[in-house]
Amino acid sequence: MSDREILIAELKKLSSRALQAKMDLHDLSEELPVNWTSIMAVAERAHDAYAELERRSQDLKALEKA
Questions:
Q1: Are the C-beta atoms of residues 7 and 63 closer than 8 Å to each other?
Q2: Coiled-coil stretches, from where to where (predicted)?
Q3: CA 24, CA 32: separation in Å to the nearest integer?
Q4: Domain extent listing, the chain
Q5: In this structure, what DSSP letter does residue 66 have?
Q6: Confidence of residue 29 (pLDDT cuts 50, 70, 90)
């Protein structure tokens, strides 16, 4: 596999992980005030997932420009 193909496969996994984190955050918000103590942990997972997805997306754009 080429670097581009590997990166695209990784982006698909990261996108799925980010979507799951988003849904977890959404589900938590609907259950409030139950489990309110987990807000920061769930939000941090969602933030980290989307940050990594954005970084790797930028890597793909840079690779495609080169």
A1: yes
A2: 11-63
A3: 12
A4: 3-65
A5: -
A6: very high
CATH class of 3-65: mainly alpha
The pair of three-digit structure tokens given for residue 6, joined into one six-digit string: 């590997």
Q: How far apart are CA 1 and CA 62, in angstroms?
A: 18
The reply to whether the predicted model has a pTM over 0.90 is: no
Distance CA 60, CA 33 (A): 40
Alpha helix (H) residue ranges in the chain: 3-31, 39-65
Neighbours of 49 (CB within 10 A): 21
- Which pair of structure tokens corresponds to residue 53? 């997805």
